[in-house]
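Catalogue entry: protein
Contents: sequence, fold tokens
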Amino acid sequence: MEHGDFLSTAFIYLIAAVASVPIAKRLGLGSILGYLIAGVLIGPFGIGAVGDQTEMLHFAEFGVVMMLFLIGLELRPSLLWSMRSLILGAGLTQVVLSTAVLALISYFLVENFNQALALGLIFALSSTAIVLQSLGEKGLMKTPGGQTSFGILLLQDLAVIPIISLMPLLAIASIPSAGEAGGDSTLIKVFVPLVAVAALIVAGRYVVKPIFRFIAQSRLREVFTAAALLMIVAIALLMNLVGLSPALGAFVAGVVLAENEYRHEIESDLQPFKGLLMGLFFLGVGASVDFNLFAAEFKLILIAVGLLIVAKFLVLLAVGKICKLDKRSGLMAAFFLAQGGEFGFVLFEYARQSSVFDDRMVSIGILVVAVSMISAPLMMIIFEKLLAPRLEAQPENQSDDIEPEGPIIVAGFGRFGQIISRMLIAAGHHLTILDHDSEQIELVRRFGNKVFFGDASRLDLLRAAGASEAQLMVIAVDSIEKSMEMVRVAQKHFPNLPLAVRARNRQHAYELIRSGVRVFERDTFRSAISLGVDALQQLGMDEKQAIQAGERFTKHDRQALKELSELWGDEKAYGTAVRKNMEELKLILESDEDYLTEREEEPAATAG
């Protein structure tokens, strides 16, 4: 590709990314589907703004390399050990079952055992890039379904090593080559990858650390960034040299460096490059879809994609049952992982080099993987928009009859609600705890907490929880809209029920004041005041003065809160009142400081 062609292609790619991704996210499609659709549109089979994108796709695959390296950096041995049940349980079960089912299906299509097994192994892998980015964007990584998906993907990434090692053995009986060497050549192909990975582990543990220590002493950020990029490029070159996937090598290197004290610096330096190159990768995948081949083999490819998605979906549902996941988490893993993965592109090329497949089969296989990856965000949207709300509304752990456990109702059992609940229980009170997040309920029940599922804005549920006789209702949910809905229902139907409400921010506090709620607390107010007092002491203020300043600030802010709530909505009047209150607060704190200083000097003056 000439210099001018490269610049024009880069320009078109950037325009496509900047234009398509914000629109896709606004429509609820997610950034990945935006990249893929934009790639199809600008590709040779769309409007033809760019030509054959084979070279660009190879370049953009460097984003996958960086992503897997950064994933590896997060996988400290302690984390791997804590996830061993997920990795060896859900992950190994999924890979083995998916390989067996897909190999069986493939056998009826290709009628060759070795090729069928190779197809089963390749198609058993899902897209780490799509799934992890989607889980992160949707805030689902920490959920049981997200953790299960991550564990399965982790085992899949690790499985690439033995799959690559197995490919030369599968070539022995599938497509013999007349001029190929015998057993010695096969053994070399099998063991060279293992030796290369072992060398990478040794180098990462004993060579990289002193090099980065030496570079860090220069105190030049750009040199450190260049060194991090150099390391990734060197790994990619080494892996290419021995016929291995650069992405796999980067993942192994990341795991090796997970305990390195420089890993956070390396991670922050590489993150921007990873994000940009990942976008280019998905654009390249979309642009490289060969619609001519797709049209020629439309029926075969459509059947293959359908069988792939359905087979993996059913296997993943079975894995969820085996691992005793709740219904929502099991379905989430099935919808998120039922596609081919980016390693499929690498493995198909490696299988071609190893004479497992011919060119036509490789082209069709790559197209099946690409189309399944394009369908993946749509599967996620189906789960998120259609199934997840219903599963939250009717979870398996929902109680038909709520039995009040005590005269105090706590709505919301997240981090805020748990602290309040522990304090009230420690003081001898009995609580009836409600939460509308089935996964949170499942989590806290493991620690012996009795929590009922339910939306506390529902009148029938509040009545069942004993609101008509309750002494207090604590509203600790994190949604402002849901919180205000609960307040309105409680005030309307249980006017004598005292309320204590969590305010998410200042604006929420204004709404609560206007609604007549007298007892509330902002999420971070007290902790910020406490830290402010400590900060004043760090800056040289006397402890007594700092505490006094914190108390005065708290008192003044709470008085001002009521006054400002009446002006909220009138931007001009509100802004004037805020400035006036700040000046008053400054004068109050300055007068307090002068007063305390005089009091401290009085004994000395008297003694004099």
User: Anything to note?
Assistant: The radius of gyration is 30 Å. The longest strand covers residues 431-435. Strands lie at 408-411, 431-435, 452-453, 472-475, 499-503, 519-522. The CA atoms of residues 245 and 346 lie 7 Å apart.
